[in-house]
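Hi Y.,

Following your request, here is the sequence exactly as I used it, all 351 residues.
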Amino acid sequence: MSQKMIFNVFTILLISLASCESVNEKTKLPEPIELKDYETITSYEEMVLANPQRIRFDGDERLVLFDSGLEKVISLSLEGEIIREIGRKGSGPGEYRSVSNIYLCDNSIFLVDDRQFIIHRFLKDGNHSSSFIYGDYGTHRINRPTVLNQNDLLIPNSDSEQALFKLMNPNGELFGELGQIPKGSVDELDYDVYRAAISNREVPPYFKPHVFAVNNNVNSIYIIYEAFPKISQYNFSGELLWETESIDAPEIDSVTIKYYNFMEMILRQTNAVQPLRIYVDGVSKNGRLFVSTNTSHNNPLWIHEFEDNGNLVNRYVLESDVSLKSYFDVDVNERRIFVLTNEGGIRAYQY
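Below is the corresponding structure, written out as tokens. Let me know if you'd prefer a different format.
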């Protein structure tokens, strides 16, 4: 072999090694950040709340939350005082049976009632403005609609042969689709297939298309695949902008291991099913995406922070003497994370 050929081979080898180091450095996990300091907004002992399930921060020193124990949506000050109730339980105009999510857009509050398949819109003062019956355009066994802004909605498709979501306006006019359905997804639960997946530590096909959407801004949407987990970003034309691989982190492994172990134990006794949910809730603030992990089966609460290009930049673990729920919101200006406790309290962790 000539000296020139040896030099070329050596150069290529150095470039390859440098490339590998670059890739390894890029995919290296950020070190965990333990969050220990928090402010108590309200505690179980104060008996203000019973069983809060969803929480959103309006950016104006107020929280909006749904409490399934009180069966109410309320606006709460950061001193823990109830300011007003929003809507009420029932089946009339502006009334809900349950609330699966809350969206705050400008001066409006949107409540998703996944029992009546309605999205209610309220003004910030609590007055009912309008309602959209999204059930008229199809529903999904798991996925829920998303309010993108005051004019556009993301409605889940009911057919796994199609895209995950339809883009619609409040008049029910379709103007696009987005979201890729994973290969191997199925619409009907087969317990033999489900048991085999649990035994093999694989994602059950029935839960592969389980996702939730987070509005980034007026131009793009995050789709979070809960069971993988994987994150995709689309524009409003339905074009895929980027997609991450499955997130590889010890806290993710912990959630899946506990899930498989628990379901394997249950399935020895009876036919039962529980969704594999690794990521549960998410918000986008100032070009950053925050998503929370599942705290079932005594998992601690982790919140992952991503840049707008999909890079995982921070891993927060919230220290607590009581169990925390997976639903949260973030105040980026004061750098605090609002979380719910299983005892019916609200905490604001500094990050």
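The first strand starts at residue 32 and ends at 35.

Thanks again,
Q.
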